[in-house]
Amino acid sequence: MKRPVGPGGATPPPRAPQSAAATPRPVQASKIAKPAKAPQPAKAPKPPKLTRAERKAQKASHRAAALASQRTRVTPAAPARVDAVGSRVQGIRRPASEPGKPVTPVLTEERKEPRRPARRLTKAQQEAAEAKRKLKEAVKARKAFERDEVRRFTAHLRRRKIIWGSVAGSLAAIMIFVSVGVFTPVLALQTIAVEGATRVPADQIMAALQPQINKPLPLVDMGAVRKAVEAQPLVKSYSTVALPPHTLLIKIVERSPIGYLSVNGNLIMVDPAGVVLEQSTEKTPGIPILTVEGGSAQSKGFVAAVDVINSLPGALAGQLEEVIANTTDDVTLVLTGGARVFWGGPENAAMKNRVLTQLLAVNPVGSVSEYDVSSPKTAVVR
């Protein structure tokens, strides 16, 4: 077979035969050798777990290191130039012969970086923060509610404690006061005062109570006080008042005389109870003479005379000169000037007083000698 001839009659060069050694064969993947694995470095041991105090100390050290890095740094200033003829340093000319003086380094403070804006939270983070805040408020409200409930259910216990504390405090105060008054001279008796004594000799009462001086007021013998006062017949009643710190006041009510009883030519002043107040030979103006059966305060006429005198108004009782009461139903009043009033018995005293007052107004003493009001509805003037 002939080879084709190329243009121009040239014969193309023959192809070189392919040899098996020259053409590489594809190698199967399974037979490719795997590269050897590099030895892995040994794992570093985990650092030991720090306690809470150690973590705090570590944070403090890091914070101190950060602050130390931000401290002021020393920046040396540029040295001043020195010329042969002279030099100028900050506008001052210095001769060339004067050596250059060292310049004091200037301390410059490093500027702090501006504070970075806070990182914006995502919607989920915001919801989580809001839920956490609401949970915290709910826990706080729950604790407050529980405290209120505990106080409400234990209110009676607190009231009981307050009451018992008040009672105990009062008892303690009373015991202290009594102890101070009894066992100390703070409340010792030093002054005895008698009030309301006109005819009663007050000095005799105070002299009888001298042994009670320097005794504490709560320990004064009230029996001795009673004996000293009752020894005076003119005393109708009395009362004692302790005036801390050192005074005992005795208030006396004297007996009021009702009239004189004539006994053996002597005038004996008596009170409405028949107690003898004094004995004299002269009559005191304004106090009538009581003429009764036997001249004794135990007679029935004395009781009737006393009732009639006590029923008279003050102006009329002051005009009495004598009261004659032989019986309980036959009482006669003798007024100043000699006029007589036939009073009768002590009954209907109010009506008799009104009628007698009118009769005296119409017929004054001196114009008539007798007024008969024993029967007030039919009064008679003579």
UniProtKB/TrEMBL annotation:
Cross-referenced Gene3D superfamilies: membrane protein fhac (3.10.20.310)
Region (Disordered): 1-133
Domain POTRA positions: 187-255
BP GO terms, sorted: cell division
Keyword GTP-binding annotated: no
Places the protein is found: Membrane
Transmembrane segments: 162-183
Coiled-coil blocks: none
Compositional bias annotation for Low complexity: 29-41
Subcellular location, principal: membrane
Keyword tags: Cell cycle, Cell division, Cell membrane, Membrane, Transmembrane, Transmembrane helix
Short name of any one Pfam family annotated for the protein: FtsQ_DivIB_C
A GO cellular-component term linked to this record: plasma membrane
Full protein name: Cell division protein FtsQ
Source organism of this protein record: Aurantimicrobium photophilum
